[in-house]
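To close the chapter, one final illustration. This time we ask the reader to focus less on the individual chains and more on the assembly as a whole: which components sit near each other, and how the overall shape emerges from the parts.
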Amino acid sequence: MVRGFGGAAAFPDEVWELVFSFLAADADRNAVALVCRGWHRIERRSRRRVFVGNCYAVAPAAAVRRFPEVRAAAIKGKPHFADFNLVPTDWGGGAEAWVEAMAGGWPHLEELRLKRMVVSDDCLELIARSFKNFGVLSLVSCDGFSTAGLAAIAANCRNLRELDLHENEVEDNCLNWISHFPESFTSLVSLNIACLEGDMNTSVLECLISRCPNLKTLRLNHAMPLEKLVSLLQRAPQLVDLGTSKFSADHHPELLSKVESTFAGFKHLKSLSGIWEAGPAYLPAIYSVCESLTSLNLYYATIQSPELLKLVSECKNLQRLWVMDLIEDNGLIAVASSCKLLQELRVFPSDPYGVAPPISLTEHGLVAISAGCLMLHSVLYFCRQMTNAALLTIANNRPNLTCFRLCIIDPHTPDYISQEPLDAGFSAIVESCKDLRRLSLSGLLTDRVFKSIGASANRLEMLSVAFAGDSDVGLHYILSGCKNLRKLEIRDCPFGDKALLDNTSKLETMRSLWMSSCSVTLGACRQLAQKMPRLNVEVIDERRGRPLESWPDDFPIEKLYIYRTVAGPRSDTPPCVWTV
Amino acid sequence: MEEAFTRGEGRPRLLDLISNGRDWRSYAAAEEKKLELRLGLPGGEDWSAGQEKREHPIESALSLGHISKVPKSTNVNASSGTKRRFLVHVEPKTEAFQQQQQQQLQQEQLGFLQLQAKGKESLQQTSGSAEQQSLEGKGCGPHPPHASSTKNAAVAHTASQSRVAATPVVGWPPVRSFRMNLAGTAKASAESNNGSSAAAKKIENDKKSLFVKINMDGIPIGRKVDLKAFDSYDKLSLAVDELFRGLMAAQADPLAASTQKNSEEKHVLTGLMDGSGEYTLVYEDDEGDRMLVGDVPWDMFVSMAKRLRVLKSSDVSASSLRAVGRKRTSNS
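The assembled structure is written out below.
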């Protein structure tokens, strides 16, 4: 009989550290930490990457204390629906607490990624001064800072490799912030400033680009005129990822040939975006890089269907395509036959409020893609009509879907041929796509679809529901099923107290639940909060009434955000938010 | 974000001797397992009514490959039939109450059928009352907040043949706000590229909302306002006052803000446009020039303003306004 294993003492710590370093998933590292005290100690001292999905789930000091050797941190703040103006702007998600704790406890921090947080210029300055080896700053959907804060980053982060500003609201008060990068600064690999609104000093930018030989990603904002863009790009033929600025100008044969030769010079370009306001005159200059592109974002390119069709048909190796619905069904059919390696498709509405004549983009486009693109696993699709038959076909064609987000623009739209709810269609999707991790529903839906989702969507992690369901049963189906659900966001559905109170323990297995314009009362929130001390139950009401304590139990809740936390109720709630 | 982040860099990699091709082959080889609907009940027989169909693994309407061509009215009966049974089980109080429930549901059913027959106005009425009845039945309390969205939906429903723009609902469709303006501009410039500039202008002007940024001196967090939501300078001024009042109070005295001091004590931003108050409202047009709000007719202002600012009146002088605009552009 084999003698029992000697335990942690049998090997030096470094060996265990090396073994643990093969574990990618935090869940695995967490499991390792539970085995014994020795492993707990070794694991926590060797964890280099920390991901905090909800900045209020844990106190910054606690996180910093537990993992003292972190080199990379990613933190998320506001709920997803903040992207659509459903969360009050002063709700919270401020980064100061985290940045201060990190500045004190993680002096060797190299990477920081923040999403949907309020980041002030002071925060940026603190970041710039506190981390000697700081290399990567990524701010996604953040606000609260200005280009003056960026200037501090530029001036102080000697080893900055990556500055990624994605869809932030940035106050433009320091026009020359780029010139704050010192002359000796050459380490830039990735620069994404597409969300900035102001003009850039082109010569300063050109200088910067020329002295950074490792630059692989450059995404500019729309402000730079085409001639200046071209002279800048000629300094960086090694680019792999390019986001252009304005792609239109008065027609000029000289300029056109310059643009063509610049693009022909890109031997390694794989990703292309920007192309703001692309005019038909200059668009063909891009054709030379199409063959090598794996990612193409035409969101800002106001090109019509014929040109779009020609362009995407050249992109035989495309894996990711983001495009406006101007591509129409014909364009998508062309994509389906040309882009056999397509994995991710996003089609956005050019006209969300429907004031212009309708676009010919229907369910047929998506069905064609699902049939032609065998590797497709991620879909975001805005359209105006759908049928159960189409969804069934898509489900049968593409059981490998992992992300399916369908937005039928008018709420409560039924199957336009049979006039039935779209329950059957979405049920088919969840039953066929066993690995589905993210799902967004739309159209006319009854409680039946939730029954299917609860029963079949075993890998589902994030579910978005709007204008759907008949009663509490719908919510109950989700909360009592969906084993792996982490994030649930609901708006304008008749879901109420009973489903919540019957599934309280489920809420602790999830990261968060958002419900707005549903039928939840304050009494249920009070009961829930009392029963589950490790949940923060935040009631949000912007109508500026009397304080929460004076409201009766049957008071209807406008917006509700529930999340699990070990940090207790937060101390920075604004006037419109009450932690019950 | 999360997956890519945890995979990270600098982590040692195990030798991956399995080729990528295998992943795709497994999809072809996968057998379709028969699905059995199984729901874990949390206990409490209140939910059992919803399970009465459990014996049939999948309801006929949901089976793959079968589209029921059942006419609409029967379908409505089916769904509300289930609903009726559920509600009766949930509130098994007195017989009289049950009867009342059934009556309400029958009315609701009738109301729903009427939706298809009648026109817009009665649509809104019946759907509104149907909502109220169903919610009262559940004992949820006062006026449901989403009745208005049902109204909107009903409007959009019947109008699907003719292209009537749906009444905008906050945050719907779920497109990011800075993209919304761009999307409208995208359509408009596509039109103007095609030479129909009149159509482009119309699209721009017909947009249901026009969000512009508004910043206030001394407050780092900017806001956004929808200019189309107002029809006069007074309303705009009021809205700006409301918007920043809370923020200013919070900045001035964080404790005061959290104890919810009443409105009388809050800062009131008056005199925004006549220079009499502590703050003045200015706007920037598409050339970056700053101008006092209030000089031009409202409609012209809406078409010109790209951005708003609330400045301290002391910082504003007639000559400095234009000069500020010039200075900005000359810096680049």
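Chain A touches chain B through 128 residues (CB under 8 Å). The first strand of chain A starts at residue 49 and ends at 52. With these observations in hand, you are ready for the problems at the end of the chapter.
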